């Protein structure tokens, strides 16, 4: 039995492990001077191209299979609010994870050095290589191909959780597994509600860009929990929870009305 004739879930798992194992072997160390360039190449040739090739060989419509549907200004606004709200909630998750387990999920010094820019041109390159490219390629794989294959089972709850767990595992950072998986849940939820992968790409790019800004600016002085795990102010947590609830409600309403 070939891959193309197997069940959608099996297709998703085979593609995931093919990409996961390949990138595990080929991903350079963060200290490598060409790490960013090599990351772009791996993202394009493996993370994005493998699921696209499988869809092509399966004769599936890529726009439908990957949820490549048009966006609306209303949904775009709520997705941005959703992403910005979740950012600070994840910071609180990271804090409590360290408090309860002693496991720290903050960026390693090697990753921070990789994200640090010495010029505007280098900052633009880092944004392209480590924020935009991963956002596009990883969303094509996880919220496009893998989530789409899982949703064929008719079990959206399990589909969202399984695709998000695979997303967390893909980053090969056990201390950050929980916050990364939760970020995956957010992205999967938005794609499921709106029916469009483009929103997840924008949100993913925002999360990546935020990490780059934290490393390259003085944001950490005003928002200390972004540099070292610490409590996010209660009032801000309340605002973020309300933002998530409101955005989720509005996204659902948009989908129902469509």
Q: What are the main properties of this structure?
A:
single chain, 258 residues, mainly alpha, disordered C terminus
Please explain how this structure is put together.
With 258 residues, this protein is mostly helical. 76% of the residues lie in helices and 0% in strands. The chain has eleven helices and no strands.
Could you say which structural class the secondary elements and strand pairing correspond to?
mainly alpha
Kindly state the percentage of residues in helix: over 70%
In whole angstroms, the N-to-C terminal distance is 39 Å
Question: Total number of β-strand segments?
Answer: 0
CA radius of gyration is 18 Å
Give a topology summary.
Blueprint: H1 8-26, H2 35-57, H3 62-65, H4 73-101, H5 109-115, H6 120-151, H7 156-170, H8 177-194, H9 197-216, H10 219-222, H11 234-257
């Amino acid at each position: 039995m070939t891959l193309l004739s197997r069940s959608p879930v099996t297709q998703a798992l085979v593609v995931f492990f093919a990409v996961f194992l390949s990138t595990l072997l080929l991903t350079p160390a963060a200290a490598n001077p060409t790490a960013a360039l090599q990351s772009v190449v791996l993202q394009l040739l493996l993370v994005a191209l493998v699921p696209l090739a499988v869809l092509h060989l399966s004769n599936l419509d890529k726009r439908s299979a990957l949820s490549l549907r048009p966006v609306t200004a209303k949904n775009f606004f709520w997705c941005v609010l959703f992403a910005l709200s979740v950012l600070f909630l994840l910071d609180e998750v990271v804090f409590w994870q360290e408090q309860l387990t002693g496991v720290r999920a903050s960026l390693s010094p090697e990753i921070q050095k990789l994200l640090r820019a010495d010029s505007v041109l280098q900052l633009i390159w880092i944004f392209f290589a480590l924020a935009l490219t991963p956002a596009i390629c990883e969303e094509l794989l996880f919220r496009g191909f893998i989530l789409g294959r899982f949703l064929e089972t008719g079990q959206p709850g399990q589909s969202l959780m399984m695709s998000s767990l695979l997303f967390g595992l893909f980053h090969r950072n056990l201390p950050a597994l929980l916050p990364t998986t939760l970020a995956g849940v957010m992205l999967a939820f938005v794609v499921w509600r709106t029916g469009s992968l483009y929103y997840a790409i924008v949100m993913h790019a925002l999360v990546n860009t935020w990490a780059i800004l934290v490393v390259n600016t003085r944001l950490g002085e005003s928002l200390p929990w972004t540099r070292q795990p610490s409590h996010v102010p209660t009032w801000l947590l309340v605002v973020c929870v309300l933002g998530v609830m409101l955005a989720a409600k509005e996204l659902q309403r948009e989908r129902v009305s469509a």
